[in-house]
Write a structure and sequence with these properties.
This protein is mainly β. The chain is built from no helices and three strands.
Length: 65
């Protein structure tokens, strides 16, 4: 399920919106002031890459193993 970040142009509130599909997506209203003057903002994301355990690391504690 995609998550989009928005910022309200009226009050400055930043919020996330969980959506089903791109076809059913409508522009949301601000949960703080209910304004529909919102803009989709860039979101950051985190991901992990599987790799060998780092030297000196026992693994399991920091996600490297």
């Amino acid at each position: 399920m995609p998550v989009f970040d928005y910022r309200c142009n009226s009050c400055g509130k930043e919020f996330d919106v969980f959506t089903g599909t791109a076809d059913s997506m409508q522009t949301p209203s601000c949960p703080e002031c209910k304004s529909e003057d919102v803009k989709k903002s860039y979101s950051s994301f985190d991901f992990k890459i599987a790799s060998k355990t780092r030297p000196g690391c026992g693994g399991g504690c920091c996600g490297c193993g």
